[in-house]
Write a structure and sequence with these properties.
It is a single chain. The chain is mainly alpha-helical. The chain is 54% helix and 8% strand. Helix 2 runs antiparallel to helix 3, helix 4 (79-92) packs parallel to helix 6 (124-141) and helix 6 packs antiparallel against helix 7.
Length: 152
């Protein structure tokens, strides 16, 4: 049984469009064996960091490396944002197990006080909800539709 959660994910993403963006929303995952099972699902990429910009440009490994380096330098600053970007990059690189671990680590991180993009602000609960979207995408791509639905 195949379910398409794109409308649910799009609804969550539409609430704060200026604060994060989706990595190639509407396009199938590249480099995934499971890409046919999750077409059009969007990954959340926080653009507050250089890693987010690289990931959005399709430079997944560069974005992953940048986020990991930033996390190593400042393990308590922007943790949720950086781990969420790492998760998105790993999904795009086809590393679903690593992506799941990164999303779970992000979900146990303290949400930032706020995430800024220009003059707009994303509240901590909104940032956390965005990570749940990525976590749902990972589980959807792995075929765990029930868990994915609970995350969406």
């Amino acid at each position: 049984m195949r379910k398409d959660f794109s409308p649910m994910a799009a609804g969550l993403l539409a609430a704060v469009p200026l604060l994060f963006s989706t990595a190639l929303a509407g396009e199938p995952f590249t480099g995934l064996d499971a890409r046919e099972s999750a077409p059009g699902l969007a990954l959340v990429v926080f653009l507050d960091t250089h890693s987010g910009v690289q990931i959005l440009q399709g430079k997944y490994q560069d974005g992953l490396d940048q986020a990991a380096a930033a996390l190593a330098l400042r393990p308590y600053r922007d943790t949720l944002v950086l781990k969420a970007n790492i998760c998105a990059a790993q999904v795009k690189l086809g590393r679903l197990e690593a992506a799941n671990a990164s999303c779970e680590a992000a979900l146990t991180s303290r949400a930032p006080t706020s995430v800024f993009r220009g003059s707009a602000e994303l509240k901590p609960r909104q940032a956390l909800a965005a990570v749940h979207v990525n976590h749902g995408v990972v589980h959807f791509a792995q075929g765990d539709y029930q868990f994915a639905e609970s995350e969406f």
